Amino acid sequence: MNRKDLDPESSPQAAFGARLRRLREERGLSQEELGVPMGYSGTHISAVETGRKMPTLRFARRADSALECGDTFEREWREMRQGALLEGFPEYVEHEGTAVELRLFDTGIVPGLLQTPEYARCLADSKARRGAITHEQADELVAFLVERQATLTRPRPPMLLVVMDESCIRRRVGGPGTMGAQLDHLLEFAQRPNTVLQIAPFEMGEHRALYLPTNLLTMPDMTVIAYAESQMRGYLERDPSTLLPLLTAYHQLQAEALSQSATVELIREARKGYP
Q1: Is pLDDT at 226 greater than 90 in this prediction?
Q2: pTM higher than 0.90, yes or no?
C-alpha cells in the first residue's frame, strides 16, 4: 500500500490530516471503517488525511463523534478557517447564521453573501497573488463563503436588505464572463421573496448617508448587532447609543437609493456590457 508521509508543520490543512490519521490508527481503524460512522467513503477520508481535500465543518464534527475526541477537529477546523479571516469576523458569522434580518451596505465590491463562487475566487486569488494570503487560504476563503451563503437557503431564511453603491456593479471583477454571471446572479437575487436589493447611484452625491461598509443584524430576540471592518480587524457593536445613529443612517440611505425595480433596470443596463 502506498503511504504518503505527512508534514504537520507544512500547513494547517496538513496538521488536520495528520491528526486524523494518528487518531484513526490509534483506534485500529482503516479509512473505510472510519468512513462508515462518519458517512464518508474511505477515499474521501484518505484525501483529507493527505491534504488533497479541504475538510468541512460537517466533516470535522463527524470525525469528533466517530473518534470520540470531544470537539478536537471542530476547534482545529475553526482555527484553520480563521487563518485567512479578519479578527472578529468569525464571531460575526456565528451571529449572521442565526439572524432573522440582515441589512447590508457595501461599496466597490458586491457583498459576500451575494457573490458567485467565480467572482469570489477572483478576489481571493488576487489576494494570493499580492502575497496577502497563501493560495491555501484563498481556497479556504471561497469555501467559507459558500458555507456562509447556506444561511440564505435554510428552512426559515432571514430577510436580507441590501444597498450597494453603484461602483459594485461598475467595477469589473474577473473577465467578462465572470462579471456577466455576477450581474445575472444579482438579478436573480432581487426576485427572491425574502430580499430587497437597492443601488445607491453615483448621482446621490453627498446625500448618501453611509460612506463605509456596514452590516446590521437583527437577532431572534430583536436585539441589533452592527459589524464594521478596518483594514486590520472587524468590530462588533452592541451599544444601543451607537446603533441608533447607524440604523437611522441606513433608513435614510434606503430612502435616497433607487427602488428595487429601478435597481433591476440599472443592473440590466450594466449587464449589456458583457457577452
Answers
A1: yes
A2: no
